[in-house]
Amino acid sequence: MTDASRPVRARPRPAERVVALLAACHPGPTVVVTTLCTALAAAVGAPAGTVALVLAVVLAGQLSIGWSNDWVDAARDRAVGRRDKPVVTGAVSPALLRAAAFAALALAVCLSLLAGPAAAAAHAAVVAMGWAYNVGLKSTVASGVPYAVAFGALPAFVVLARPGDGLPAGWLVAVGALLGVGAHLVNVLPDLEDDAGTGVRGLPHRLGRRATAVLAPGVLAAAVVVAVLGPPGPPRVVPAALGVGAVAVAVTAGVVGAARPASRAPFTLAMLVAGLCVLVLVVTGADGALT
């Protein structure tokens, strides 16, 4: 085929680029994490302005992490034919993803400074861990560490952004860290084979599908237990009931994962456990979240 007869892909229009960028930011995790932090800020009694600031900072940080992930993984995604990735279909270029990632990073840093130096430092740890995972740690046995640190630092950022001198309680940071590790294990489940085919060998890949499908809901159940028992005093009725339900779902997910590791059920059930844990945190609110 001559150059004259070779089909030329039309350049995406500006509106198409915007849609492609939104699809490349990992919208699911971005929306979930931003919503969680915003709801937590409201639950701990932050004023409306601070709640809005938390939303903006976390959203910018998550956009930066999501776009940097698709930028760094562009070659891998093309190698395995990930047609769900806009960078593979040509709807967005790696260069545009790189520019968007750095722009969102700069915005996140600038906005976080408005919350004070301690809160800004906590959120810097979140974004730094997200980028560290994207650029290399995802392929090591320590792939869960960035998730543990980042998700532990997220509730710390929310509390530190709140006016006053309150510090995040240790149990709240522990719940975040456990949620992060559980989220890492769950998120990797659908892509284990594709990842392994491109040389990614993180902790879940080394454990294998069955072990990961069992461990993920177990870690998330531990997060729920800490969320219920962590605040001072006896557990309240609603968080306790949610906790019992979450543990029951986690046990079911673990049993299914052990018996049928190829099933999508462990992934779906583990996500339900994570959602129940978040609900426990929101219902608990400021009860012991600050020290």
Outline the structure in words.
By secondary structure, this protein is mainly α. It has 2 domains: 153 residues, Tetracycline Repressor, domain 2 (Orthogonal Bundle), CATH 1.10.357.140; 123 residues, Four Helix Bundle (Hemerythrin (Met), subunit A). Helix content is 74%, strand content 0%. The protein contains 14 helices and no strands. Helix 6 runs antiparallel to helix 7. The longest helix is centred in the first third of the chain and has 25 residues. The chain is globular and about 60 Å long. The N terminus is likely disordered.
Shape: globular
| Structural classification | mainly alpha
What top-tier CATH class of the largest domain fits best? Mainly Alpha
Q: Helix share of residues?
A: over 70%
Q: Which value, in Å, is the CA radius of gyration?
A: 20 Å
Amino- and carboxy-terminal Cα gap: 70 Å
Summarize model confidence as the mean pLDDT: 88
Largest sheet: none
The tally of helices reads 14
In total, the number of strands is 0
Architecture (CATH level 2) name of the largest domain? Orthogonal Bundle
N-to-C SSE series? HHHHHHHHHHHHHH
Q: What would you give as the CATH superfamily of the largest domain?
A: UbiA prenyltransferase
Beta-strand percent range: under 5%
The CATH topology name of the largest domain reads: Tetracycline Repressor, domain 2
Show unreliable segments: 1-8
Number of domains: 2
